[in-house]
Amino acid sequence: MELFALQAAAKLSIGNRVQPLKFKEVLANGALEKDLEDLIVAQPSLLNWSDPGAAEYAELLIISRQPRTLTRKRADLFAISDAGELVVIEIKRDADDEKGRREGMEFQAIRYAAASRKMTASAIIDMFADHLKSLDVHAGKTAERDIVYREHAISNLCEHLADEDQDLTESDLQELLDPKAKQKIYLVAAGYEADVLSACAWLRQHDIEIACFQLRPYRVGDQLLLERDRLIPPPQLDDFLVEMRPSSDGATIGGGASVERRKADKASAIKWDDEPDNQQVVSSWKEVLLEATTKALRLGLAVERLPMPHAGNGTKLRSPAEIQPGLCIECHASAELIRDWISKMFQRLGKNKAYLRVETRSGSVFELPEVSGTTVDA
Question: What is the CA radius of gyration of the chain?
Answer without folding.
Answer: 26
